[in-house]
Design brief:
2 copies of one chain form a homodimer.
Chain A (H helix, E strand, L loop, with lengths): L1 E5 L6 H18 L3 E4 L13 H9 L6 E4 L2 E2 L5 H14 L6 E4 L4 H6 L8 H17 L3 E4 L4 E4 L20 E5 L5 H9 L2 E5 L3 H17 L9 E5 L1 E3 L3 H9 L2 H16 L2 H5 L10 H7 L2 E3 L1 H15 L4 E7 L6 H18 L1
Parallel strand pairs in A: 1-2, 1-13, 2-3, 4-5, 5-8, 8-9, 9-10, 10-13, 11-12
Antiparallel strand pairs in A: 6-7
Helix pairs in contact in A: 1-2, 1-13, 3-5, 6-7, 12-13
Protein name (chains A, B): LLM class flavin-dependent oxidoreductase
Keywords (chains A, B): Flavoprotein, Monooxygenase, Oxidoreductase
Family (chains A, B): Belongs to the bacterial luciferase oxidoreductase family.
Chain lengths: ~350, ~350
């Protein structure tokens, strides 16, 4: 699951926090393998300031699921402080951890941190990651970059310093990509990191895999479809009609109508998801039929299989989390059908 | 309680994390009013990288106790990111939150963040706090300081930004002081913040109160002893002999012998705690008798009352947390005796 979170703006931070932790517990119980949590400071719908807070609260109440910040926006933190925290959390989760990194897409998140334009964000991200890797080596170093400095002390007579090495010696890393020929997915490929394709139409999924694989190949690294995840909106119910109602009238419908459609139109993404349509003609039916994956277990399995076939496939489907706080039962039942009914048909 | 934490260096982060959360739950159950958690990135004994992680994991499992980062070291974070996270956590705890702030005392923590000397730490702290207060106003602003920039966006046609105002509109703040005429406690007094006197002998407690009260009076602010906390090492058992054994042979003894005595000697603090002694002559008995507060409920109540009388008193006693992970029962019983037997004698 990918818990962005798409929680309605009127929800309190405590409601957002509780819902996110409860969903982590539910996903773990149902056998989901990964739970990603977004990070934003200024967005009214995507409103978790630090995904590690959800991870900390979930660590003791889950057993198997990986808990993944998705993504820490590197230009907005002191990279050495973040690296130390990340290493610590890999131990707290006993290795059930993939670090998502990003350079920050929203101008308001940048403005909050005093960045007046975002042109340096990618360079800051690369430099921050370099520092973080140094911190995880847990050996004395000194790094003086264009944006940040960091170092690690030699032990002295009074102090033996704590290891800042991660659990198992290595932090597993993932990057999400959304745009065509995504630079983030190239970067992931070049470094052998995991890739998340944020849904922007079927053409994008194929393009994202090619971008990722090509960069990896050029760097002499072997990646496979198991490293490749696709993030989708999915709703399952016993019948197509019930699933449609749960989607359109529920949290996913509200999020799209009130937040995502305007945003996706602004960035040309809705057009990418519906390449054959005139945006003026798009109705909610088009979105139900052609963008979301909605239906009975059979319908959803068929639709997912068709997308796999058209795009070459992927290792893990990440389902977007949505705000079903007022009545969580049908949403959790959708998750259950997805694991118990849909997944076996896909194997 | 003040969970620095003094956990042995060989403890894993997961053990430190679980012990800290379990202690928060136990302290809440016993009626403790505040639970402070330290923040350090490089220390082998004081090894929690971000106290909010403990607070997040404790928020759902505690009811009344205030959960307090003590302290966030402001020069080591992006102040706007920290401010947004702090505001969010005041809501997650539904107001059970006091923000401890500090400027960072350990050179290794500074070196990790690329600060080659610490001479700017105090100025960075003041500027970071200024930015954080601006963020908590949750109104458009632009701040360009000597060390940091930050801002808050105007709403635009596509986005209504999320409030970054804290629960109840205000963040309660506390500062800890250790040195004579502590600049931190002056700062706390001038701003009407809470004060924590970290134990450095009885003379220091009296000095700390005077420093704090005088700064407040000069600023035209009224503070009282209720705002004043003293942090001490305390162990209670049914008899003096049992308490002594639990202290000397347990976590508190280990922390002092292996970590704190060398550190306290280095900074002249042990001399301040034992002003009439030659440091070469100090034995563990001196520390049990004159530095820690150890004994039966009657003994501990007498000792605490004597210190109160000698120093003018304080509002809240904060007990240092210690590593009783291998057998937590006698330690928790000590906490229980403190609340059930000692506290009523002090009222």
């Amino acid at each position: 699951m990918f818990q962005t979170p798409f929680m309605r703006p009127e929800r309190t931070p405590r409601q957002v926090f509780d819902f996110a932790v409860d969903q982590a517990i539910e996903c773990d119980r149902l056998g989901f393998t990964e739970y990603w949590i977004g990070e934003h400071a200024t967005m009214s719908w995507e409103s978790i300031t630090n995904p590690e807070l959800i991870i900390a609260a979930s660590a003791r109440q889950t057993q198997k699921i990986k808990l993944c910040p998705g993504a820490h926006l590197l230009p907005y933190h002191n990279p050495a402080s973040l690296a130390a925290q990340v290493a610590w959390m890999t131990h707290v989760t006993e290795g059930r951890y993939i670090l998502g990194i990003g350079s920050g897409g929203y101008p308001s998140d940048a403005k909050l941190r005093g960045l007046k334009d975002m042109s340096t964000n990618h360079k800051r991200t690369t430099e921050a990651l370099e520092i973080m890797k140094n911190v995880w080596e847990s050996k004395p170093f000194q790094f003086d970059g264009e944006f940040y400095s960091a170092g690690y002390p030699e032990n002295d007579e009074h102090h033996e310093y704590r290891s800042t090495a991660p659990y198992g010696g290595k932090v597993e890393i993932g990057l999400a990509g959304l745009s065509p020929n995504s630079p983030s997915l190239s970067f992931a490929g070049r470094n052998g990191y995991n890739a998340l394709s944020v849904y922007a139409g079927e053409a994008a999924i194929a393009n994202h895999w090619n971008t990722y694989e090509q960069a990896a190949t050029e760097a002499g690294i072997s990646v496979n479809r198991e490293n490749f995840r696709v993030v989708r909106d999915v709703i399952v119910a016993d019948t197509d009609a019930e699933a449609r109602k749960l989607a359109v009238e529920g949290g996913i419908g509200k999020a799209w109508m009130e937040y995502l459609i305007p945003v996706y139109k602004q960035f040309g993404l809705l057009q990418a998801m519906l390449p054959d349509m005139d945006m003026a003609d798009v109705t909610i039916d088009d979105i139900v039929e052609k963008v979301w994956i909605v239906g009975s277990p059979d319908t959803v399995a068929e639709k997912l299989s068709a997308v796999c076939e058209a795009t070459g496939g992927w290792g893990t489907t990440l389902v977007y989390g949505h705000d079903y706080l007022d009545d969580v039962k049908p949403w959790n039942y959708s998750l259950q059908l997805l694991t118990e009914e849909v997944a076996p048909k896909m194997a």
